[in-house]
Design goal:
By secondary structure, the protein is mainly alpha-helical. It contains 15 helices and no strands. It has one domain: Growth Hormone, Chain: A. The N and C termini lie far apart (about 45 Å).
Length: about 375
Amino acid sequence: MGKQTSSTVVFMLQSALLWSCVPVVYSFLPVYLDKSGFRESHIGILLALGPLMSIILQPFIGILADRSPYKNTFLILLNAGTLISILLFPLHNGLLHVALASFLLASFQAALISVSEAITLEGLDRIQKPYGPVRLAGTAGYAVVSVIAGFFMEKDIRSIFYLTAFMAFFSILSAWSLPRVEGHQSRTRRVPVTDIFKNRELVLLMTFSMVAHMGISFYQNFFPLYFAFIGGTSDILGILYFISGISEVPFLLYADQIEKKLGIHKTLAFSMGVVGVRFLLLFIIRCPVLMYPVMLLNGLTYIVFSFSLAVHINKTVPLELRATGQTIHGMSMALGRILGSVLGGFLIEAIGLMKALLVIALFSLSAIAMFAAVNTRIGKAHTRS
């Protein structure tokens, strides 16, 4: 594994390659499944395998990473398994084969991003460098590969898997070059995982993140179907994902200043409001051309929750539990994704796609009031104690 370095270049390269692999696959996978003839409920269940395995495996992987000599070992193994899993998809499009490939991919990528963030954040702390530019490199990788993938898919839908497997190979090499980060429970000190749940504020933030990811998952999984429904094509979808990716740039450039001014609670509440407003716009607009400006809202949704909580966990969770803390947050996001995916599929079959958009919009907006009420209650309890 890599030598110690004071440069952020290796972290930026690893972030760019990591985010150009699995997230891109999941962005276009609904299109592949739809064109392969799967029903909406089947698509929802298959896409839910990723979040399901995240719920089951993430905490265990996080604990093992914290107790291993080096966390990097797990990152390399997860990357390698992901590469092999991706290459299974184009071999056959039968339900059982796709389900098996989805299961394996979901298992290996369950804690991939969480472990990567734990290594990156701790490595950056050592050299006193900010996380924003590194995560921005990931956004750039996602945006560029999304455009390329969209054009390739228009010619051969299976090309998405070969392209992302190619990027995954280099992601493995970049993971190998990262500075080594120890598992801080690998020697004598043991800190119980339950210590994380004693922080009621953190539990609330993770719960709110779970609820937000119900809406975010519904959008990510079913937007390609919505776009096809209103007359969009796969090549344009790739451009939209490019816009979606670069829309994260402003937040990542000013994330530290935003959170210092607003605080994490107001920042996340605002982000949830954007999630709800986006669904309202999709319900009202129904025009492919007008999707270009709507995609800019993506830069105020997923990345806000992902970045803000990753940094917050790195600052507030004990050193011995940081990988575990990241994976527990990943588990909460996964639970939200699985609920959004499975319930979303059945909701669409029950009331139709357009009405489902309105229901999710109202659900997302109402969650802000609940979050504010619980946060106020926790704050009063903390003041009394």
